[in-house]
Amino acid sequence: MLKGSSPLIFERSTAGRFAYSLPTLEVEKKELSSVVDDKFIRKTKAELPEIAELDLMRHYTELSNRNHGVDTGFYPLGSCTMKYNPKINERVARIPGFAMSHPLQNDSQIQGSLEIVYDMQEHLKEITGMDEISLQPAAGAQGEWTALLMIKAFHDSNGDTERTEVIVPDSAHGTNPASAVVAGLDVVTVRSNDKGQVDIDHLKEVVGDKTCAIMLTNPNTLGIFEEEIIEIRDIVHGAGGKLYYDGANLNAIMSKVRPGDMGFDAVHLNLHKTFTGPHGGGGPGSGPIGVKSDLAPFLPSPLIVKDGDNYKVEHDVPQSVGRVKAHFGNFGIFLRAYTYIRTMGPDGLKAVSDYAVLNANYMMRRLEGTYHVPYPQHCKHEFVLSASAQKKRGARTLDIAKRLLDFGYHPPTVYFPTNVEECMMIEPTETEAKETLDGFIDTLIQIDKEIDENLDVVLEAPHTTVIGRLDETQAARNPVLRFSLEDIKEEK
User: Are residues 440 and 369 in the same domain?
Assistant: First the structure.
């Protein structure tokens, strides 16, 4: 049994107990082997826990109480925008006419749902400055991959088949190079300059006839706005490439500046981040893509279009890169994001960016006397600290992150971007109050003091969690990925 926890569900198991009672089978029973290949039929009874319904409920409730999320505590995960999810979004997503509709229904039966999808596309066009939108991709990384497939298809359609390189900054999100590789493209890294922005001279060296696209987020992963974005646009467009906008950091610039106006040709958005859909647990996510008109013919099919006063699903998209997600994407997340956008309005979305930027700069300025700030200019929605000085005194960034758990905080992103030594990347979002920010700041300052006064309490953290400090080497080399019933049997 783990320290401070109730018994595991297998430890609760008692032979003969059960949590349900099924009615007697009223149809003729057939031998399983007559309908299922024998190789798929279990030869021994599954060793499932035998447990009463009340104990089952307690088991899952306890597990849920162990989770950390934006509803339970501060979640300053840099580059991930873990903001509050308004509960009105959930109520709208559960309206029966939406929740009970099915994408295979006739178009005439789901006009309301199709209208929501179409109207959402129109809102995102306005927010991004793009000409066309597809809501189909299931998450940001899939949106990246889909957009790169479209850019590659565009070049191929023009006979430009040698454009196989994607330029990615050294501070980029890890999904950028990964998406490029999965799309069958080669990755070329462009350096950052001493201001944390794209090194223009190096960009001129790496761009060329093989350039398919450059992948950027602006502000970038360091939380810094790319001041030379227009020159970057001219360099890449001048070489025949396209500009791709990673929308993970859009929270900093909504209603301020649009990717389309900066010169980007394609963009993905994270509805489950920027637009308050639930985030985490493996999904559901939503990563719509927007493109300029010359890329529009290659959008995933089907498309949701307006036909007079009606809305329809258009499957005839001859140059489409094909379907990337079942049906139209994650409709429930569209509803949540749509509710958020309509609730906030243009002025509200602008205020979101105002407060996100204000919160990040406030935190950075309060912490710069304790932790090293490698890029001291004003940041946007997030910023990076370095614990390089703390490392010299005996505690690494990882130790500080583990110690934060003892105070009820989820740690920020650590060791990323990789071009900052002992990096911590912090994004407070606009939804956190000053008192919360001050509490987190004071805790980081306290941990810094502990390094001098009681180093072991930092190095041995966390102390209050169900599972304490893991052996990192063993966890990496010999991970335990499967539950073992034999361990429970031996304990009994």
Answer: yes
